[in-house]
Amino acid sequence: MQITCWGVRGSIPAPDPKNTRYGGNTSCLSIEAEDRIVIIDAGTGIRSLGHELLGTEKEIYIVLTHVHSDHVEGFPFFKPLYEEDRTIHLLDHHYEGTTWSLLERFDGFHFPLEPSQIPATIHRVESDGVAYLNDEGFDLTRRVVNHPGGAYGYRLSLEGRSVVHIPDNEIDPPGNAAAPFEELQSFCSGADVLVHDAQYVLEDMPEKSGWGHSVLRDVCRLAQEAEVGHLAFFHHDPERSDEALDAMQEDARKRLETHGIECTAAYEGLTL
Q: Half-sphere exposure of 120 toward its Cβ, with a 13 Å CA cutoff?
């Protein structure tokens, strides 16, 4: 598998000179295997991914962790949508009895096209997306995580390798957790790569407690307890500068080095 981060910023795009090294685009990650690619979330980072896929014959599958704006706002600017000979498998998002499709971005009002005007062939999967991807040959599982409005984390395995992607999750939320620490640990256990939300540092608390994002210290603990191979922390605060992320990376590496865990502050273009 080849895992690539295309957008690593959280909450809102942050195009700013102080963010140039890590990037200001919002959540988008791809997992590529041979001639197939699974795209998790369609934040503004999906635009750059679309440029890379133009003219290729890769089979494209798009799945969402949740439908907050920073995870869906880039979809209309995904260039393969405008290739007439392209088929895109678009998985509906289901959560607690509600269903939402990325095609709703194309309503002729918020964006000037409607679904019928998309040149590509859209294979909309209205049934359970996990079951569909498993039928397509992907060993994919998901679980609910701790985020206001609900969100999923995904685990994908291939030929003995595995990656877990949890872009929005508060490991230690106030009140009852939808995903207690022990369950998160089990879900992530032994993963070769864990890409996890670490939007906050201790100084952000308690003001941002309950906002649905993790403190880096807690993410390091999860990586340790789950015995993952490589932690890439993700969903950076829009106010976090390159220098501040450098400092977070240094702190995390010190916490994890004695456990033999690699650590990277995720940046646009990071490929594992």
A: 22
Instruction: Render pLDDT for 48-69 as a digit per residue (tens, 0 to 9).
Output: 999 999 999 999 999 999 999 9
pTM of the model: 0.96
> Strand (E) positions, the chain?
2-7, 28-33, 36-40, 59-63, 87-91, 93-95, 98-100, 121-125, 139-145, 151-158, 161-166, 193-197, 230-234, 262-265
Its domain, for residue 261, covers: 2-265
Give the mean model confidence (pLDDT) for residues 120-141: 94
Q: Which two tokens stand for residue 214?
A: 């993790």
- Is 166 a member of any domain? yes
For residue 271, is it within any domain?
A: no
Supply the CATH number for residue 232's domain.
Answer: 3.60.15.10
Name every residue whose Cβ is closer than 8 Å to that of residue 204 and which is 6 or more positions away in sequence: 215, 237
Whether residue 34 is predicted with pLDDT greater than 90 in this model: the reply is: no
Q: Is 172 contained in some domain?
A: yes
Q: Which of 3, 2, 5, 1 is nearest to 267 (CA)?
A: 5
**Domains in the chain: how many in total?**
1
DSSP code at position 135 = H
* Domain contains 203: yes
Q: Are 173 and 210 in contact (CB under 8 A)?
A: yes
Per-residue pLDDT band for 268 (boundaries 50, 70, 90) equals very high
